[in-house]
Amino acid sequence: MDLSVVLVICLSILIFLFLWNQRHAKGKLPPGPTPLPIVGNILQINIKNISKSISKLAEDYGPVFTLYFGMKPTVVLHGYEAVKQVLIDQSEEFSGRGSLPVADNINQGLGIVFSNGEIWKQTRRFSLMVLRNMGMGKRTIEHRIQEEALCLVEALKKTNGSPCDPTLLLSCAPCNVICSIIFRNHFEYSDERLLTLIKYFNENSRLVSTPWIELYNTFPSLLHYFPGSHNTIFKNMTEQRKFILEEIKKHQESLDLNNPQDFIDYFLIKMEKEKHNKHSEFTMDNLITTVWDVFSAGTETTSLTLRYGLLLLLKHPEVTAKVQEEIDRVVGRNRSPCMQDKSCMPYTDAVLHEIQRYIDLVPSSMPQAATQDVKFREYLIPKVRGISSILKTLESESRSVMSDSL
C-alpha cells in the first residue's frame, strides 16, 4: 500500500477518535475554546507564557473551562475560589495525580509527587511519619535551620560586599537542611558533589517551563525520540538518582535496625520488615524516587523563594528598611531568630507571605485528577479526565492583597 494512503488512513482514524471523544464529553466538561483535531487548543495558547494565556482565556470563559492539549481534555481552574474548592473543599475526590509525561518517564508512578492509589497513600503516610520523627515542625529542625543560616551568612560575608550571583549559595543552604534529614550529611558549600546536584536542580527547574517541554508533555509519544531539552532533563534526573543510590548503598553497609539515623535508614528498615510481602510498596526503586521527591520539593522551591525575595527587597528599599528595623528591635544582633519571634514580628511575617504570593512560584500547579466521577459546580468531571489547576489570581485581587499585607 502506498505510504501516502497509509498516512491518510491513520490521520482519518485520529480525527475520528478526537471528534468521538469530544462528542462523548459534550455536556459534561466545562465549555472552552473550540479545539482543532489532533493538536487541540495548542495553537491558541502562547506556550512561552501559558499562565498569561490562561488568564486571558479566563476573561472569556470564566474561572472553570476546558482546554485540549493535543487530544487530551484538561479542565483548567483559574483564581482562588475555584482552586480552593477543588484542592481543599473537594480534596478527596480530586486527590489523584494527573499525568506529566516528562516526569512519568523517569519516576514510573513511584514516590510521592507523581504517584497514585495505594503507592501514594502508603508512601505519603510513611514519609510524613518519618519526617515528623526527624523533627519537621519541631524545635530540632529549627536548630538545624539556624545553624545552616549562620553558614549562609558566613559564606555571604566572604564576598566582602563585592557584586556576586548568590544563586548557588541560596541553593546550598536549603539543600543542606534536606541532606541532614535524608542523609545525615552536611556538605561544604564548595563540595563538588553538592554543586553538581544543585546544578541539575537549577537546570531542570529552568527547562520544565520552556515551550519544548510543554510540547513534549502534550505529544510525548511523538517527541520522545526527537532531540530536545527533554533528554537533558532525563540525563540530569538519572545522574541525581545515581547519587541517591550511592548514598543508599553506604547506609545499607552501616544500617542499625534498632537505631535509625535518617530518612533512608527508616525506609530501609521498613523494606526489611516487608521483604516477604510480594505486594509491598517499599522497594528500592520507590526509595530512590521518594528521596528524589523530598529532595527536589524541599530544595528548589525554597532556594527560588529566597532568590526572588532578595530581588524584591532590593527593589523596595523602604520595605527592607522596615523589616530590618523590626528584626533589630525584636531579635537584635546577638542571636539567631526563632519561631517564637514570629508573633512579635507582624510586618516581617506579612512581607514573607507577600513575597510567596507575589512571585507566583508555580503558576501552573501539578496536574490533579478525579478519583471518581465528580460533580463540580454545574459540571461532571469523569474519573478519566485530568485537572490542571492554575494558581493565579486576578491582578486586581493581587493588588488589594498587597495593600492589606503591607
UniProtKB/TrEMBL annotation:
One of its GO terms (biological process) is organic acid metabolic process. One of its GO terms (molecular function) is heme binding. Keywords: Endoplasmic reticulum, Heme, Iron, Membrane, Metal-binding, Microsome, Monooxygenase, Oxidoreductase, Signal. InterPro entries: Cyt_P450, Cyt_P450_E_grp-I, Cyt_P450_sf, Cytochrome_P450_fam2. Its cofactor is heme. It comes from the Eukaryota. Its main location: endoplasmic reticulum. It is found in: Endoplasmic reticulum membrane; Microsome membrane. This is Cytochrome P450 2C21-like isoform X1. It comes from Bison bison bison (North American plains bison). The gene is LOC104983529.
